[in-house]
């Protein structure tokens, strides 16, 4: 039972030690890149003593009774402190100083952990309006890990101690006067402050008349433009086709007119001649038979001469089809 209690106590003590070690700052000293630093070590009466400095167990200085066998004498002060110049990230680590008596016993020792940090960049302060009266401030900076943030009211020059986060939410409605803000970022060796920002949030714009997304509106406009272009192409095609058909019809009409001009025309004299020949003569129709019988032969011959002359005249006219000359009827002698 006693062994169990002792074991349990040892476990609890180890846990407490680990927790305290986790909360402890791993660096005893902080320095900026390019900075000079003197390690804090003091020992009076180094004349006959041996002094040794190590960096991560590597000897960087060794001197005894005023003689220096490793390192530079000007880097060591009269009290034994070490001066580091133009620090770089490789200069970080554990430094240890040991002073040994002439009888080879340890007179004094010191060790410390050095961390070399870069200078913080200047932050950029931005804000976002959540509503017309609420605003969220954001302190933007590169590599925010390990940095400390602070906020300051510019008008009152008052630091908001309770606000140590990268963002700050405020309500403009609760403030009588709109104030300006600044944010600061800092590490163990440097600190930077942002420009002053005065947040103002306007009322939101009225909702759009059409609850459509911009992509939908663009798609509708593109479709309408494509439809109009298609209609124009169809109209132009129909007009060209109609014009071609009209041109072909006009050419056909012109060809028909030219053919009609080339065909021979029938003479009106020819038509009149046929009508005269087909029509019965006056002597054949109007004179009665008794009258013709009473006329003597010489008178009949005399009357037939004009008819024969007219027939001869008609025979002399040009005609496409020649016909034999007709003689008048002979009157029998009684």
From TrEMBL:
Record's compositionally biased regions (Polar residues): 294-307
Stretches assigned to the Ig-like domain: 123-198
Transmembrane segments: 217-242
Keywords: Glycoprotein, Membrane, Signal, Transmembrane, Transmembrane helix
Primary residence: membrane
Domain of life: Eukaryota
SUPFAM superfamilies registered for this protein in UniProt: Immunoglobulin
InterPro entries: CD2/SLAM_rcpt (IPR015631), Ig-like_dom (IPR007110), Ig-like_dom_sf (IPR036179), Ig-like_fold (IPR013783)
Signal sequence segment: 1-22
Species of the source: Champsocephalus esox (pike icefish)
Region: Disordered, residue numbers: 274-334
Name by which UniProt lists this protein: Ig-like domain-containing protein
Subcellular location: Membrane
GO cellular component terms listed in the entry, alphabetical order: cell-cell junction; membrane
